[in-house]
From TrEMBL:
SUPFAM superfamilies: Cysteine proteinases. Gene3D superfamilies: 3.10.620.30. Residues 1-20 form the signal peptide. It comes from Blastopirellula retiformator. Keywords: Signal. Residues 204-261 form the Transglutaminase-like domain. It holds the Pfam family Transglut_core. SMART domains: TGc. This is Transglutaminase-like superfamily protein. It comes from the Bacteria.
Length: 325
C-alpha cells in the first residue's frame, strides 16, 4: 500500500512504564487486557521547518481510536511551538482526526506535534460456526451503517462488471458464507499481487493485478453488490476488508478477510494498531469523497525563500513483502 497515511505512524514495543496522565483518546473504556491482547505504542504527527515567516498553519491527520477489538490511550504529546490548547479532535464518521493550529512561525523556526498513543488490540477471533452467519436484511441495517452497502471512491460496487461477477460467483442455494468464500477464492486466483498506485476495484478486475488496496477494494465491492455490508480496515503498512454478519443468536459482528496472504476466510494473525475503518469520507477542503483520511497541512501566509519542509512522522513506510505461492 502506498499512502502518506502510513507515513504518519510508527509502532514500537510497549514500555512497562507507560505514562497515563493524559485523557483516553477514544473515551473512558478500560484498556483491554489478557493473553490474547497485543500492547503497542504508535506515534502520530509531524515536524515542520520554514525559511520565512509563516502564519495561519493548520495541520490535520487521523489518530487511532477505540473499536470493539481495540482500546487506545493518549500517553504523551511532543510539542514544539504548538500550544496544547490549539489541539482539537474531530470525528469523520467513525474515524478520529486531530487538528493542530499554529498561529505563526518566525523565519527558520521549527514546529513539532507528535501524539503518542498506547494501543491494546485483541487478536482476531475466527467465527465458530461461519456457515450459520448471514447478512442482515437491508431494512434491518441502521442508517449509519448503510454507507457500507454503497459505492465509494475506488469501490465501484454498482459497476456492471462488478455486479455481474458478484452474481456469477454466488453459488446456487449457497449460504452467505459460501458467497464470501467464492469472492475470496476468485481474488486470490485471478488478481496477482503487484504494488503500485491506487486504481480501484474495477481496475483490479480488468488488469488482474494490484496490492492490498486493490484486492480489498474488489472484495468489498463484490460484497456490497451482493448486499453484504463490507468496509476497509487500515493498519500501518496495510489494509484489509471486513464484513458485517449476523449469527443465529446474538448481535451482528464484523468478520475479517485477509486478502494478501493465504489465511482461511475469517482468520488472520493481524495485531497491528487499527488506524481507521471505512473507505468513503467527507473531508473538509475536499470536494469529493476520500478513500481514506489523509494528513493535510495548509499555510495561509508564507514569505519564505524556499518551500516549507513537512515531515509526517516517521517517513513513509512500505507494505510488507508480498507472499510467495
Amino acid at each position: 500500500m502506498r499512502t502518506s497515511l502510513i507515513g504518519l505512524l510508527a509502532w514500537i514495543a510497549l514500555s512497562t512504564t507507560a505514562a497515563a496522565q493524559f485523557e483516553q483518546a477514544g473515551g473512558q473504556r478500560k484498556m483491554l487486557t489478557g493473553d490474547d491482547v497485543t500492547l503497542q505504542r504508535i506515534e502520530v504527527g509531524f515536524k515542520l521547518q520554514v525559511s520565512g515567516l509563516a502564519q495561519g498553519i493548520v495541520a490535520t491527520f487521523p489518530v487511532p481510536t477505540d473499536w470493539p477489538e481495540q482500546t487506545v490511550r493518549l500517553v504523551e504529546k511532543k510539542l514544539v511551538n504548538v500550544k496544547e490548547s490549539d489541539i482539537k479532535f474531530n470525528m469523520l464518521g467513525e474515524t478520529k482526526q486531530a487538528q493542530i493550529l499554529i498561529r505563526a512561525l518566525s523565519p527558520h523556526e521549527q514546529a513539532e506535534a507528535i501524539l503518542v498513543y498506547e494501543v491494546a488490540r485483541r487478536n482476531v477471533i475466527k467465527p465458530s460456526e461461519p456457515e450459520k452467519l448471514t447478512a442482515p436484511a437491508v431494512r434491518d441495517i441502521d442508517r449509519s451503517m448503510r454507507v457500507y452497502l454503497n459505492p465509494g471512491p475506488a469501490i465501484e460496487s454498482n459497476h456492471s462488471k462488478i455486479t455481474k461477477l458478484s452474481a456469477e460467483l454466488t453459488p446456487p442455494g449457497g449460504t452467505d458464507w459460501d458467497k464470501l468464500d467464492a469472492f475470496y477464492d476468485y481474488i486470490h486466483e485471478h488478481v496477482q499481487y503487484e504494488n503500485g498506485p491506487l486504481k480501484g476495484a474495477v481496475a483490479a478486475l480488468e488488469e488482474g493485478r494490484g496490492d492490498c488496496e486493490e484486492m480489498t477494494a474488489l472484495f468489498v465491492a463484490l460484497c456490497r453488490a451482493a448486499k453484504i455490508p463490507a468496509r476497509t480496515v487500515w493498519v500501518p503498512g496495510h489494509c484489509y476488508p471486513e464484513v458485517y454478519l449476523q449469527p443465529e443468536i446474538g448481535d451482528p459482528r464484523w468478520v475479517i478477510a485477509e486478502m494478501t496472504n493465504q489465511f482461511p476466510l475469517g482468520e488472520s494473525p493481524e495485531t497491528r494498531p487499527i488506524l481507521q475503518k471505512g473507505d468513503n469520507f467527507r473531508v473538509q477542503g475536499s470536494r469529493r469523497p476520500e478513500h481514506y483520511v489523509k494528513p493535510t497541512m495548509s499555510i495561509k501566509n508564507y514569505n519564505g525563500s524556499t518551500p516549507p519542509v513537512v515531515q509526517w512522522f516517521p517517513p513513509p513506510g512500505v507494505e510488507p513483502t508480498a507472499p510467495t505461492n
